[in-house]
Fold this sequence. Notes:
The protein has helices at 4-14, 25-28, 157-165, 204-214, 229-238, 262-267, 305-323, 374-379, and strands at 21-24, 32-33, 37-38, 48-49, 53-56, 71-79, 94-97, 109-112, 122-125, 135-136, 147-149, 170-174, 178-184, 188-189, 200-201, 218-225, 248-252, 275-279, 282-283, 287-293, 296-301, 333-338, 342-343, 349-357, 362-365, 382-386, 392-393, 398-403. It is of the alpha/beta class.
Amino acid sequence: MRSVQEHQRAVTDLIRPRPPVTATLVDAEGLVLTEDVIAPISLPVFDNSGMDGYAVLATDIPAATSPEHPVTLPVAEDIPAGRTDVPTLAAGTAHRIMTGAPMPAGADAVVPVEATDGGADVVTISAPTAHGRHIRRAGGDVAEGAIVLRAGQVVSASVAGLAAALGLKDLPVRPRPRVLVISTGSELVEPGHPLQPGQIYESNGVMIAAAVRAAGAEVVGTATVPDDTAQFEAVLDRYGVHDGAVDLIITSGGVSAGAYEVVKDVFGRSGDQGVEFVKVAMQPGMPQGFGRVGAAAIITLPGNPVSALVSFEVFLRPALRRAMDLPAPDRPRREAVLSEKITSPPGKRQFRRGLLDHHTGTVTNYGPPASHHLRYLASANCLLDVAEDVTEVPAGTRVQVWDLTD
Ligand code: AMP
Ligand code: MG
């Protein structure tokens, strides 16, 4: 059996980053920049008013000291935001100006409307101003030519906003891996259809697809196939696996030791098609497979829902996030005090579902170890990580947990 770490390494090596692309700002959101971004223009683009008010020459109104001692100026122009033909301000006059409108040449300050009577033809100003007041200077935020974003930064809401403010339509980013999710099993029925005796609802497909998207990758398809090699192959064709349309195939089921193991049957029990089936010293999730189908990587997860999702957490989520250059590929590991004793099989790293209390720093095992108990996984907020050689963990022990809430 191989260790969890060895298999993690194999999966990480298998899922290679895609070459950078130029993505629209909408598509780039959540992805990582592959190049520094240099400002093509300055921000603000031009000197503009920081307030709704009146553009003036500060030396025209020193006598305006209070409502009792105002100064009155004729209003020569009205400058709303967006006006492009802004005339020069003549000394002894004011221009009514709105926030973001270009400052007229000849003016050197803005008096906020609150310090005036708001007049449209003549304005009475009841407070003085100083040279440069309430003017947002060109380049005061960003100087043209400056590096404003760095390679490795995630395109967040504010990054997208800055790029747009600079007039950029797209950004160079590491694209999402394109993932095809295939569930296998002749017993599986899509939710929404009645169950016949012996049938169960298919649950891994929607679950793994959701986990893929939550990890940041793209789901190009989810398919369910019975234990039939021809139908499995047909799905690979339908989604263009052999035409380079898929970067990663994730299957679930069909890799155990029984008969009717369709994934093993397709890829050869000996692994002669580039897929290797291995046993990993972990519980749940022992049977694993990995390899290549044409240009696509393939990871074959066990069918039990808990095994499938825990395997995804342990192997695929970090590998996908690394392939996207995301800054925190791993779930945060925390130490917590175990509230009740648990046992663990010898020679296997065990991942139990847990309830972590972030405030008290304690963790409680949640549900039995068997891998069909999906209910507990659905409400767990952490995985308890029990080392291979440990068979019993007494209450009060400090244990390592993977925090699933971050
Ligand atoms: P397998 O690995 O194919 O032997 O499946 C192991 C167990 O997981 C069996 O009880 C299957 O019925 C169940 N199982 C496999 N695939 C799915 C799935 N997509 N949804 C729900 N249960 C599944
Ligand atoms: Mg099966």
